[in-house]
Design brief:
It comes from Asticcacaulis currens. Keywords: Membrane, Transmembrane, Transmembrane helix. The protein is mainly α. The protein has helices spanning about 5-25, 40-60, 65-85, 90-120, 130-150. The radius of gyration is 20 Å and the shape is elongated.
């Protein structure tokens, strides 16, 4: 097994462990457990969702960062809804703290992409190409619009 595959496997294992830990902490009877680490509820949400988003981006590099971020935000909203039925308090502010953690993990990657575009343009090089998965989606859309034009 190549080194890169081993690294991704290790990250995926860590992601599973982290997901289980966060799931138990947010849905279990551990309300206020973050205070043992000197954190308040919102800080714990930011840190947990930053870690989840960051690990997810490393674990599944072929999926677009925006799709991953939106998925994690959806999971955060579902957790808040589930908490209503487990005797815990649900809060929009908790979900906003989740969103801050997701943004903190996602935005630097977009900044690096922008930086690469600027550097390529300054050197007179072509702008970096899209990922293969993005090109395939665009090609399928293009074929669909060609079929509509023929009809």
């Amino acid at each position: 097994m190549p080194r890169a595959e081993k690294a991704v496997l290790l990250v995926r294992s860590g992601l599973i462990a982290l997901s289980l830990l966060v799931g138990v902490l947010v849905l279990g009877p551990f309300q206020g457990a973050e205070q043992a680490f000197g954190l308040n509820d919102k800080e714990a949400h930011v840190i947990a969702f930053f870690a989840l988003t960051f690990m997810l981006q490393l674990a599944v590099p072929k999926i677009r960062r925006l799709d991953l971020a939106l998925s994690v935000l959806l999971v955060g909203a579902l957790i808040e809804i589930i908490q209503l039925f487990t005797g815990r308090s649900a809060s929009v502010m908790d979900w906003l703290a989740d969103a801050i953690g997701v943004a903190a993990a996602t935005l630097p990657a977009y900044a690096e992409t922008f930086r690469n575009y600027v550097r390529a343009a300054q050197r007179g090089r072509a702008i970096p190409r899209r990922r293969a998965s993005d090109r395939q989606v665009l090609a399928v859309r293009g074929k669909a619009s060609e079929r509509r034009n023929e009809a």
